[in-house]
Amino acid sequence: MNSSKHTELANHAWSVADLLRGDYRQSDYGKVILPFTVLRRLECVLEPTREKVVETVARFAGQDIDTDHFLRKASGHSFYNKSDLTLRKIAADPQNAAKNLQIYVGAFSDNAREVLDKYEFNQQVRKLDGANLLYQVIGKFTDLDLHPDVVPNHNMGYIFEELIRRFAEQSNETAGEHFTPREVIKLMVNLLVAPDADALSLPGVVRTVLDPACGTGGMLSAADDHIKALNEHATVEVYGQELNPESWAICRSDLMIKGQNPENIRFGNSFSDDGHARRKFDYILANPPFGVEWKKVKEEVEYEHKSLGDAGRFGAGLPRINDGSLLFLQHMISKMKPVDVNGGGGSRVAIVFNGSPLFTGAAESGESNIRRWILENDWLEAIVALPDQLFYNTGISTYFWILTNRKDADHKGKVVLLDARDQWVKMRKSLGDKRKELGDGTNGRPDHIGDITRLYAEALQVAGDTEHPLHGKVKVFANEDFGYQRITVERPLKLRFEVTEETLAALAEAKAVARLERSEEFVTAVRTLLGSSWATKSEAFVALKDAVVAAGLTWPSGAPFTKAVRETIGVRDPEGEVQKVKGAAEPDADLRDYENVPLGEDVEGYLKREVLPHVPDAWIDHTKTKIGYEIPFTRHFYVYKPPRPLAEIDAELKALEAEIQALLGEVTQ
């Protein structure tokens, strides 16, 4: 089925909006159109076995037994409908449409009815009936042919996604929160699964797949399709969790129709209510919302972090509250199967991020500690930079992170960075912020997906071959290359001491002086030294003490007072006296600097080479050294482009000026 057919069917479903106009706000159209589309799809799927189910119901009528198993067998699916009603029959009886529709929906098996309940379907039925629109809406959907032989399951996903996109536009929501462009999913699944192609082709293979932010289930479907393409006899069990009720309902209904277990798709927040606790999976993939705060689940996440530590999901660290991306990654890593003593088992993980998780957070911050945990455990296999303007809800650059706890020998201790930012074609028509797409080799477009997949597989060889045409697109680093030591470079506090109007005013305002019983007299006594200056602290304090005693006052004692006097009459001076604390030079906080030194490099050697030639009195405070990890992807692929020659720019400006003058001349003629 081509894209024009998807659009045609989606247009048919969305044409119901013409009936709703006036009685519904535009932002509420989807609340009617989406559940009726799901209902119509379920009806079309069950149609071939509808009579057989009705016969089974009649056969067991009046018997006190659980008929669920027999009805599922009769329907040929994991769901069924016990009524002999259809949408066409209901539409033909307008007076009883609401009553019959509720009977019809109530006759679905519990799992199907739960899907419709998430749309608050009964509430919409009552509202449509009150507006005398129900039978008309039902009539519209009876003309929508969604039978599986006309619209295969994979293609039905496109229709749902198009309807969700329109619903999101009308309600000012973000379509990209619910689903990911299919070509992006295809590439992601390729990179996730391709290294296992040989193992997946074996007979009797069983694989489990989890998407903890599954939306409408597009990624799960693509993973299922990809594995089945490698081995049609493979058993693929898909699992997911989704917070948005409409997306959850669509994903769950999709699994029911495909014969998968719909109970595998859990509803709720993956952080606070893990629907797959204690489960492990072969493949874990997700496109979590970018930059979404986790304030709503802060209490639960922080409790798990503090109480369970490394035994929980978030032991490595907590990112800042306004971006839960790295929480998702930790959650996914917790779902990896352990590797056994023979090297079997293990899992592969793929996630879509924006640029923030690469570098956000200083050394030993939550984000940096999470990156450190991942890299020191040698789980990060690669990061792939994608083109910008590839997603529906953002035009920013995005990245695939690919992780595994079963790297092959060649990849151990290494991370591949792959730059695919130039692999795109311009879309004929933009969809939200999506203006670019990855070509798949069809309809005359380049095969970006295939090219990137092959480059990923050959990354180590390409990176090592300087003659390879794509050598500049791949770089390989050791895990520790992303680590650094955040050192604190101190310089001594140097002061001269003087009594001026400015320092005298500061002395009067100092708390330790203001608290003196005769503070004004104290300041007046010091004023007698106005204009005086001393090179050393001891000279200054002797003179000050003499002036105060001469005025009949007692020189106060105590460290707070001494510190206040020094800080107010002391003036920073590069040629001043070095201040000491317990015999050691006191650092000047205003001159304090920080340097990032590569992990493994001798910091004293770095200081001697990079700092001391410029500031010979500097030293490192080793008690403040921190370890950090960041992945400066863009920096590694930066290529300097010299500015254009001034003569060339000047010539271009003159040419444009002449062109403008010529156009103005034509206008004035």
From TrEMBL:
Boundaries of every N6 adenine-specific DNA methyltransferase N-terminal domain copy: 9-141
EC number(s) stated in the UniProt entry for this protein: 2.1.1.72
Protein's organism: Streptomyces anandii
Domain DNA methylase adenine-specific: 154-429
Catalysed reaction equations from the record: a 2'-deoxyadenosine in DNA + S-adenosyl-L-methionine = an N(6)-methyl-2'-deoxyadenosine in DNA + S-adenosyl-L-homocysteine + H(+)
CDD domains: AdoMet_MTases
InterPro entries: D12N6_MeTrfase_N, DNA_Adenine_Mtase, DNA_methylase_A-5, DNA_methylase_N6_adenine_CS, SAM-dependent_MTases_sf, T1MK-like_N_sf
Superkingdom of this protein's organism: Bacteria
The keyword Lyase is annotated on this UniProt entry: no
Protein's UniProt name: site-specific DNA-methyltransferase (adenine-specific)
MF (Gene Ontology): methyltransferase activity
Pfam entry (one): N6_Mtase
One GO BP: methylation
Keywords from the named record: Methyltransferase, Restriction system, S-adenosyl-L-methionine, Transferase
Recorded family membership: Belongs to the N(4)/N(6)-methyltransferase family.
Broad class of enzyme this protein falls into: transferase
